[in-house]
Write a structure and sequence with these properties.
The chain is α/β, with parallel strands linked by helices. It contains 4 helices and 16 strands.
């Protein structure tokens, strides 16, 4: 049970409480099971306090100091926590704020820096976390369902991000980029079993982030992933169902064996992208650019929709070499897939110092032996500029 004298003191005056704490910094703060709901405790000093099982529902905790506080089964539902300090990994004792079985449902933590906190079995459902910075935080079995994480910074939450539910949350322009690495140069966050169903991740930053081996149980279903730069990311084997990749970038990305069922890639950029054995069944590619993507006969483009496509990324990011080349014409049904298949079956031979006819003949014969289509045609012999 809580120390009733301490409860009475903090209910009397935040200023008086903080002055007492400054004079007596070594006294243990026991607010275990205390009912502190509906109070105005703006600027309160709860550093190192035991708030386990306490009720802080609808309490004003703006600018509160919660560093290294014990918050097991604490209820922060609808609490106001803007600009509060919920942890400090730089403490000399190495202690962290610990939030286990804690409720932040509907709480307002916007523009708050949360440093070195550990969150387990905690709900941020419907919480306002706009521009909130999670620095060196750990998350396991967390619900951000319907939360507002717009422009939130999770870029240095390198410890753990596992069993997290982001379903129907707003993650527009959130930062998941990896600035902390392990010895292999990989970002250490673990996204296994995370759920992004119906989440809006427009403009999210994933730079220097690796999803390899941690995405097998990640759910991207009906997710808005438009205007995201996935360049150099390893997304091989990941499931994306009915996701929107409008205006997204996949430069040198690894999409091998991934499932992009009924996704929207309109105006997206694929440059030196690996799409071997990828499934794009039912996806849309109108106005996308596929410059030197690497596919194979197992790349599934069945039932795809594409009015026109670009094959070159020009200067200043402008797409060029439109197909069909006539700007007034669009692909007929199935024409886009046939064009990709034709390109796939084309082999380019380059000779830097004139044509080596013997090498040309040998290469031609080897390709013919490997081909399942019988006779080969020589499309053109051109001088490269």
């Amino acid at each position: 049970m809580a120390n009733q004298e301490q409860v009475n003191l903090l209910k009397r005056s935040v200023e008086e409480w903080n002055q007492w704490r400054e004079k007596e910094p070594d006294i243990d703060i026991n607010l275990h099971q205390a009912n502190l709901s509906d109070l105005s405790l703006e600027g309160i000093n709860f550093k190192d306090a035991d708030l386990s099982f306490a009720n802080l529902r609808n309490t004003n905790l703006k600018c509160a100091d919660l560093r290294a506080a014990k918050c097991v089964n604490t209820n922060f539902e609808r609490a106001k926590l803007q600009n509060s300090n919920l942890g400090d990994s730089s403490l000399g004792s190495g202690k962290h704020a610990w939030f286990s079985n804690t409720s932040f449902q509907y709480a307002n933590l916007s523009q708050t820096k949360i440093q070195g906190a550990v969150f387990s079995e905690t709900s941020f459902a419907n919480a306002n976390l706009e521009k909130t910075a999670f620095d060196e935080c750990w998350f396991k079995n967390i619900s951000f369902c319907k939360a507002n994480l717009e422009k939130a910074d999770l870029s240095t939450s390198s410890g753990l991000l596992q069993l997290v539910d982001f379903s129907e949350s707003n993650l527009r322009q959130a930062d998941f980029s990896g600035r902390n690495y392990d010895g292999r140069g990989d970002f250490k966050a673990n996204l296994s079993h995370c759920n992004f169903r119906k989440a809006d991740l427009t403009g999210v930053t994933f730079a220097n982030f690796t999803l390899k081996e941690s995405t097998k149980m990640v759910v991207f279903e009906d997710t808005n992933l438009s205007k995201i730069d996935f360049s150099t990311l390893d997304l091989s084997g990941v499931e994306f169902i009915r996701c929107d990749f409008l205006n997204s970038v996949f430069c040198e990305s690894d999409l091998r064996d991934s499932n992009f069922f009924k996704c929207n890639f309109e105006q997206a950029l694929f440059w030196q992208t690996k799409v071997v054995s990828s499934n794009f069944k039912g996806s849309k590619f109108t106005a996308a650019c596929i410059d030197d993507w690497h596919d194979n006969r197992f790349t599934n483009l069945d039932d795809t929709t594409c009015k026109y496509i670009y094959f070159k990324l020009g200067e200043k990011g402008v797409f060029s070499e439109r197909r069909p080349s006539d700007p007034n014409r669009n692909f007929a049904h199935g024409e886009f897939v046939k064009l990709i298949q034709k390109i796939r079956e084309t082999v380019d031979l380059f000779f830097r110092e004139g044509i080596d006819w013997q090498a040309f003949l040998t290469s031609y014969q080897n390709v013919q032996l490997e081909s399942d289509h019988g006779e080969l045609d020589i499309r053109a012999i051109e001088k490269s500029s």
